[in-house]
Structure to design on (596 residues):
């Protein structure tokens, strides 16, 4: 019997040096050893095993260890659970109150005296060393343990460590019957499985669980339909995202465009204020001798910023000059001859009809040349008839575009002086070539070659694109030069452009034409020739629709639908200062027009 008890104690405490097995320390062995100690005490097989020692053992092995901890520790071997582990632990039997007369008589034997002595020894030690511990599993984990001391007071125990934080090694836990069941032999969490499980592979995703199952063919068909719908949904979501981004981009572009317009408007207002403030300089320094502009860069820059409106009559007359030495009576003479031809029916009717059609389209936004209500209609018609009569001696006839030049001059200069100014302006070599009929065709071709050379040097991309689509300057340059840009630019921008054209001469005509293409450069990348020609003529349908949608008038300059205004054009003109040279212009004209 003694050997049996010794073997049980050795087996519980793992003190034997003869054990072949490696000592284990885990949840299973701790619970098994605690059960062995309890049975040994109850049976009285070992005199050294007392209630106090069991309480001490339990306090060290059960109360302060996390038996429910599912984590594994390196070096620990988890063996199979002992069959005794499945027997529930009777926790109340482990708690012995002071003064209790409880006696355990589960195994009556001849050693009853030894059991009573052991019980009395256990009572003595319990009264002196340990308080009564009560565990209420119905309360929260932190307050389910209470201790009753000798004075009868009950003190709840807070299961915290020294740092007021729960500690798995120092926190006493309640051992419930459920926790006494053996855990899984493998306490190491299995790695996460990537991909669908076996159940997910066979379960139907297109039928509710409480409905009868589908056939495999039907399920596959419905699954394919579901995947197709998801694909369309993702495509629709992507399209919506792209649409939102495009809308945000367009909104940003519109905001930037509006800021640009406001900035240009402010610059224009500031420039006009500077012109008004510089009026005394014009009257004192420039008006007495306008040629000072060619000698003084400051006055020249002042002229480039724009001639004051009330001084344009005088400045334009002086800048154009009178190389033909015409008197003011020349207009009266030519007009009287034209009226006699009209009254007698000698005046060509086709020229008269072409003239009428041309006048109707002049500056429609101003309404000052309208046949029925325009105050300057009759004056313009008389001046054009007198100009046709003055050219009859040379065998020349009416040319479209001259009505624009005559109208612009007539707005700023009285009629007699306007006629003289018109004739002298059209005698400049470039304009005479374009208004000279078939006799000046060679000169016109020479100017086309000059412009092509300048375009290739300044904007090679546009030049090669035009060459690729076989678009020569003859397709767009006459429409710009014959009316001096009046059909394509806003009136104020055209007036300022005229200020410099009359001062600088023919070279600035080509410089302004290059600036027009520079403003349109971003739009001149169409792969179709017809679209390019429509754009150059100011008839691009997309730009017209945008202008209508934005509420911009369509009766102004043709290029207003492209955003071409005074400040934008002059930004391009000023940007040419780095490469434009008058010496280059003279060299090209001497090469192409040696008789000039």
């Amino acid at each position: 019997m003694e050997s049996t008890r010794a073997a049980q104690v050795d087996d519980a405490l793992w003190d034997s040096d003869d054990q072949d097995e490696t000592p284990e320390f885990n949840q299973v062995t701790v619970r098994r050893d605690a059960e062995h100690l309890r049975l040994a005490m109850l049976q009285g097989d070992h005199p050294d095993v007392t209630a106090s020692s069991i309480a001490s053992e339990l306090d060290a092995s059960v109360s302060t260890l996390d038996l429910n901890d599912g984590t594994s520790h390196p070096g620990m071997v988890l063996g199979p659970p002992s069959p005794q582990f499945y027997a529930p632990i009777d926790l109340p039997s482990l708690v012995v109150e002071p003064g209790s007369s409880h006696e355990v008589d589960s195994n009556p034997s001849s050693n009853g005296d030894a059991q009573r002595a052991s019980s009395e020894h256990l009572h003595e030690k319990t009264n002196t060393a340990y308080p009564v511990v009560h565990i209420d599993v119905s309360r929260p984990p932190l307050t389910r343990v209470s201790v009753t001391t000798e004075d009868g007071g009950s003190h709840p125990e807070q299961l915290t460590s020294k740092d007021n934080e729960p500690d798995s090694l120092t926190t006493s836990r309640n051992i419930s019957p459920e926790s006494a069941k053996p855990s899984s032999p493998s306490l190491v969490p299995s790695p996460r499985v990537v991909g669908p499980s076996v159940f997910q592979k066979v379960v139907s995703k297109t039928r509710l669980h409480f409905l009868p199952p589908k056939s495999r063919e039907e399920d596959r068909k419905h699954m394919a339909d579901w995947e197709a719908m998801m694909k369309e949904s993702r495509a629709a979501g992507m399209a919506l995202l792209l649409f939102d981004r495009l809308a945000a981009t367009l909104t940003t572009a519109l905001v930037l465009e509006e800021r640009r317009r406001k900035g240009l408007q402010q610059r224009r207002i500031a420039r006009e204020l500077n012109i008004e403030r510089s009026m005394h300089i014009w009257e004192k320094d420039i008006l007495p001798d306008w040629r000072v502009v060619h000698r003084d860069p400051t006055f020249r820059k002042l002229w480039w910023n724009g001639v004051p409106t009330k001084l344009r009559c005088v400045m334009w007359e002086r800048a154009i000059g009178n190389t033909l030495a015409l008197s003011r009576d020349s207009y009266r003479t030519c007009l009287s001859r034209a009226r006699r031809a009209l009254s007698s029916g000698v005046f060509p009717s086709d020229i008269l009809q072409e003239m009428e059609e041309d006048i109707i389209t002049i500056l429609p936004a101003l309404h000052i040349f309208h046949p029925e209500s325009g105050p300057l209609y009759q004056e313009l018609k008389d001046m054009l008839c007198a100009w046709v009569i003055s050219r009859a001696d040379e065998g020349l006839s009416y040319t479209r575009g001259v009505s624009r030049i005559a109208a612009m001059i007539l707005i700023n200069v009285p009629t007699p002086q306007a006629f003289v100014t018109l004739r002298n302006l059209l005698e400049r070599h470039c304009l005479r070539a374009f208004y000279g009929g078939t006799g000046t065709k060679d000169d016109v071709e020479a100017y086309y070659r000059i412009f092509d050379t300048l375009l290739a040097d300044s904007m090679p991309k546009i030049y090669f694109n035009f060459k690729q689509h076989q678009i020569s300057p003859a397709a767009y340059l006459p429409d710009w030069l014959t009316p001096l840009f009046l059909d394509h630019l806003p009136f104020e921008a055209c007036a300022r452009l005229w200020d410099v054209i009359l001062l600088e001469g023919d070279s600035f005509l080509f410089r302004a034409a290059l600036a027009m293409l520079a403003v349109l450069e971003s739009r001149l990348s169409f792969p179709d020739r017809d679209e390019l020609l429509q754009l150059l003529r100011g008839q691009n349908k997309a730009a017209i629709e945008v202008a209508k949608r934005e509420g911009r008038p369509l009766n102004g300059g043709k290029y207003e639908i492209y955003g071409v205004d005074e400040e934008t054009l002059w930004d391009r003109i000023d940007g040419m200062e780095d490469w434009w040279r008058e010496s280059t212009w003279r060299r090209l004209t001497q090469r192409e027009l040696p008789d000039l």
The beta strands are 132-135, 145-148, 154-156.
